[in-house]
Design a protein that fits this description.
Elements (H helix, E strand, L loop, with lengths): L4 E8 L4 E7 L2 E7 L6 E5 L21 E4 L1 E4 L9 E4 L9 E9 L3
Antiparallel strand pairs: 1-4, 1-8, 2-3, 2-5, 6-7
Length: 107
């Protein structure tokens, strides 16, 4: 992805849920409204935080994308508590992912 790109996904969830989008050791918690209409989500690197609350600087060098109902982020700092995102329990049927793409937001 380019410098100004954003990660866009379109998700259909029949019930209200929390979903975690993870990139490497960073994650963003998304609130899905639920219902019969799909929901568009647009994320920038700054939306992804690590266990210590630091934002992802850029998309450069990323290796792994995950989509899950919950995720535990662990800090590399000694004695730091893990950061739990999502609810861990998905309500209703599985989500349907309609699209996943990079969208260039540069002029």
């Amino acid at each position: 992805p380019t410098q100004g790109a954003k990660l866009c996904l379109n998700v259909l969830s029949g019930d209200a849920n929390k979903m975690v989008v993870g990139i490497d050791n960073y994650a963003a918690e998304i609130h899905l409204a639920g219902g019969k209409e799909s929901q568009s989500i647009t994320l920038s690197p700054a939306d992804f935080l690590d266990a210590d609350g630091n934002a992802l600087d850029s998309w450069q060098g990323i290796k792994e994308l995950s989509l899950a109902p919950s995720k535990t982020l662990r800090s590399k700092k000694e004695g730091a508590k893990p950061r739990q995102l999502g609810s861990g329990q998905w309500q209703g049927g599985p989500p349907r992912f309609r699209s996943l793409s990079w969208v260039d937001s540069a002029p």
